[in-house]
Design brief:
InterPro entries: ARM-like, ARM-type_fold, BRAT1. This protein is mainly α and 876 residues long. It is built from 42 helices and 2 strands.
């Protein structure tokens, strides 16, 4: 038994006894919490998973025996818990065999009446399939037959998994397959046929032919197509399998002819005026034809002909609601749209084009055209993972043109708002689809010209209509992903007209009453700030002209929702990297003090996490005032060691990682190693970095880190008893430093107290050359004749002065520092501590913490509800 579980056994025993007695008590919450903890441990593969403790095996034996004797079926929450425990236990073959000795599972199924509960029953049986003993049990008792009577979605998955596990038991496998084949050749209900279709589809999705071929071999013939859609799915699969079997024997031309014949059959089915069936057929057809492409034709992308029908409702909407002519459409627009239409038609056969016309004629008669378009968009979203890049681009172009036509029509003919101004489900689905396609396929201006229509159409849509919250959020997300991934610098000139709308639009959304809208608007601003820094300098103007940085600063401290405040700080993390925004808007905001206040006083962890991240970014990209460094260090020490949120500690440790790197760079290190020479500001000359000189500099760094509390932070974080990620991060940072010290044989020199150590007074400023701090004596206060020349060399940005050598800024001493509040770990103590195997510390701690971090409090909470119930009854 795991020793770390022992303290909790008594509490778990009491709780399980309460479950067995099944008192009239609201147990649902306790049961859900406890079973979720056990399930999470099982899912994560934790070795010390509590469910493997013998206590649970004994409990389930006792409970099933008691319920069998009394004939009393427990209430639903206890049934659910018992099945979950039995399922988790049964996945371990040794435990399964122990429980099965007394036919416990037969008793369990009987006493809990599981055959009437499809989902719990399937959950239990599926657990048996994890090992050979469980498979033998299922084969011996024929409980799998019950699955054919169930009507839940998991039935096909279970039968498919059963067939996969028993594929070497040919006799049994054929028996199950014949049970599946029967309904296809009879007039059984559609649910039975749907099970057969679902099993075959399960294997098609995985491109696994073993079971489908057995299915085909046990069919005496292939049925004719009918009006039953599920049956037709089976027929199509059998046709494909027949073609697959003949593939090696037939000529390529015969195979292509057979494929064309099957495609024609698909297309004829698409001509149905029941467009709901068309959507289902296209959904299934994407899987089917992907399989054909992969296993038979070797000529990919047959699936394009199935995408066109799904776009038909959108084309029909255009015909039904948009004016036939628009004089404002310029020649450029006509040229690109004509190219798009020509490209689409070139992908379609004559039969496919005719089927689309038939679809269109049927759709024009449907009153619920928008609803059908929403359903087709849903199908496109579900099956997009099967698209090739060309198909994704074609869908993207279509939806962009349709949305652009809507916007242009509403602007030119305001009366049309009555027709589709309230069809927000349609617009929501389309904007979401565009987002998904850009994300999944990386669609950019290199792929299609139409990408430049997205931003103007989105802006117009938001300004013309009073959209529901979910639509507004989705449009803003599309704007965000488009700016981040799709627009090229030279094409931004074509949409400069949108810049005048962009800033004011975002400003309005930041003042929205709905927090989710404010949050996604901030996400857009964050992306704009990042792109303004790395790619599009012109976007700086968008932010500055509308005074967005100032508003974001205010939101970071004053917004009523914590997640909005956190996102606002994320924006500031990007903005401070843009010099124009920093110098003209943020430099005077005293952001370091604001972030310190958040780290020390904010109650929400997600906000403190971002504040700690801000300090890291600010340390790297901007200069803290000299007089604020002491307070900043104190705050980051507090956040690294005392904050109650583990992620705040991790982010604060990343701050110290940057501090270490900065000190090392300040001593001449470049990319993790020291160059042969560097420029010494103190000695006003280029100096050679011998091993002795490097050790001297590393000792100085250790002294500096000790003085500002960094070494104490790392030591405390490694020893942290609560948060594994904190300790792992600290070990990673410390190990890098220790490896560097070992590389240059630093260790024995730290035998006594260090001399007064200058501490950091500012941030690293890239100047293009390497600067060395004072190594021995303080600088003279009387500059000589060459002082100005030397300073010009030190501050020069011409990298040719010392080619390839990085130059951090000068560091001085911080005065008025309260050393009493810091836990000072001297360099000697630090080296002694890190002499042990740090990774071993983490391994031992992981073993100790695994799986029980919240168990004690969870058990106490659950038992408390029972104890309160007992005490309440005692009062009467």
């Amino acid at each position: 038994m795991k020793p770390n579980v022992v303290p909790y056994l008594l509490k778990m025993q009491r709780l399980l006894d309460f479950f067995t007695q099944d008192r009239e008590h609201n147990v649902a919450v306790a049961v859900e919490k406890f079973s979720s903890l056990l399930h999470r441990q099982e899912t994560e593969g934790i070795e010390s998973a509590l469910v493997l403790v013998p206590l649970f095996t004994e409990w389930i034996k006792k409970a099933v025996t008691l319920w069998s004797v009394t004939g009393a079926k427990p209430r639903a929450p206890i049934v659910c818990f018992t099945v979950r425990i039995a399922t988790m236990l049964s996945k371990n073959e040794e435990v399964f065999c122990e429980l099965n000795k007394d036919s416990l599972f037969l008793k369990l199924i009987a006493v809990l009446d599981l055959r009437e509960d499809d989902r719990s029953y399937l959950e239990l049986l599926e657990g048996f399939l994890e090992h050979e003993s469980g498979v033998e049990w299922i084969v011996a008792y024929d409980f799998w037959e019950d699955v054919f009577k169930s009507h839940c979605d998991e039935s096909a998955h279970f039968i498919a998994k059963l067939l996969e596990k028993t594929i070497d038991r040919e006799e049994f496998c054929v028996r199950v397959i014949k049970r599946l084949i029967g309904p296809v050749f009879s007039d059984c209900g559609s649910s039975s046929v749907a099970l057969s279709a679902g099993v075959l589809e399960n294997f098609l999705r995985r491109l696994d032919l073993r079971i489908p071929l057995l299915f085909y071999e046990n069919c005496q013939s292939i049925p004719e197509l009918s009006c039953d859609f599920e049956k037709n799915k089976v027929v199509y699969t059998l046709q494909m399998l027949e073609l697959y079997k003949a593939n090696d024997k037939s000529a390529s031309a015969n195979i292509d002819s057979a494929i064309d014949k099957i495609r024609a059959t698909f297309i004829s089915s698409i001509c149905s005026r029941n467009f709901e069936h068309v959507i289902e057929l296209c959904d299934f057809g994407q899987i089917y034809w992907t399989f054909v492409d992969a296993k038979i034709s070797k000529l990919p992308h047959h699936t394009v002909f199935l995408i066109i029908p799904l776009l038909s409702p959108h084309f029909t909407l255009s015909m039904k609601y948009f004016p036939k002519a628009d004089e404002d459409i310029d020649d450029l627009f006509d040229e690109y749209r004509k190219g798009y239409v020509d490209s689409m038609l070139s992908r379609m056969s004559h039969d496919s084009i005719r089927s689309c016309y038939k679809c269109r004629d049927g759709l024009l008669e449907r009153a619920e055209l928008f609803e059908l378009a929403v359903a087709s968009t849903g199908c496109l979203k579900r099956t997009r993972h099967l698209f090739c890049k060309d198909a994704a681009v074609m869908v993207f172009q279509t939806i962009v043109y349709i949305l652009r036509d809507f916007v242009r029509t509403m602007k030119k003919f305001p009366e049309t708002l009555a027709n589709f101004g309230d069809q927000f489900d349609y617009f929501l689905g389309n904007f979401e689809l565009l987002c998904l396609l850009v994300d999944d396929f990386g669609i950019t201006w290199c792929d299609i010209y139409e990408i430049i229509y997205v931003l103007p159409a989105s802006f117009d849509f938001l300004t013309m209509l009073r959209c529901p919250v979910d639509v507004t959020v989705q449009v803003l997300r599309l704007i965000d992903v488009t700016i981040a991934k799709s627009v090229a610098p030279n094409l931004t000139l074509l949409i400069d007209s949108t810049h005048n709308l962009f800033g004011p639009l975002l400003y309005v959304k930041l003042r929205d009453d709905v927090a989710e809208v404010r949050n996604v608007a901030l996400a857009v601003i964050r992306t704009v700030a990042r792109m303004a820094y790395i790619k599009f300098p012109s976007l700086q103007k968008v932010l500055m002209d509308s005074e967005l940085p100032t508003l974001v600063v205010k939101m970071s401290t004053c917004d009523g929702e914590s997640f909005v405040r956190a996102t606002a700080i994320k924006c500031l993390q990007e903005m401070i990297q843009v010099e124009e925004i920093w110098n003209n808007a943020l430099k005077t905001e005293d952001l370091s003090q604001k972030m310190r206040d958040i780290l020390l006083n904010e109650t929400e962890g997600i906000v403190r996490v971002e504040a700690a991240t801000f300090m890291c970014v600010a340390y790297e990209h901007q200069q803290f005032p000299k007089d604020s460094l002491d307070a900043i260090y104190e705050t980051m020490i507090y956040s690294s060691t005392t904050d109650l949120h583990w992620e705040v500690k991790v982010r604060a440790l990343n701050f110290w990682d940057k501090v270490i790197k900065n000190h090392l760079q300040n001593q001449g290190m470049i990319d993790g190693s020291f160059p042969n020479v560097t420029f010494s500001k103190e000695h006003r000359k280029i100096v050679t970095l011998t091993d002795s000189e490097i050790r001297k500099r590393l000792l100085k760094v250790l002294g500096q880190l000790s003085a500002i509390g960094c070494l104490g932070v790392l030591t405390a974080a490694i020893k942290d008893d609560c948060d594994m990620e904190v300790s792992k991060t600290a070990v990673k940072i410390t190990q890098k430093l220790v490896d560097l010290l070992k590389k240059y044989a630093v260790g024995g020199e730290c035998s006594g107290p260090t001399s007064p150590i200058p501490t950091e007074s500012g941030m690293s400023m890239s100047s293009g050359i390497s600067v060395d701090e004072s190594m021995d004596s303080p600088r003279s206060s009387q500059p000589d004749l060459n002082e100005e020349i030397i300073e010009q060399i030190v501050n020069a940005k011409d990298a040719s002065l010392l080619k390839g050598v990085y130059a951090p800024s000068d560091y001085g001493s911080v005065s008025n520092y309260d050393f009493q509040v810091r836990k000072i770990v001297t360099p000697t103590e630090f080296l002694q501590f890190t002499h042990q195997d740090l990774n071993n510390i983490i391994a031992e701690k992981k073993k100790w913490l695994n799986g029980i971090e919240d168990l004690g409090s969870l058990l106490d909470d659950m038992l408390k509800t029972y104890d309160e119930d007992v005490n309440s009854m005692d009062c009467y």
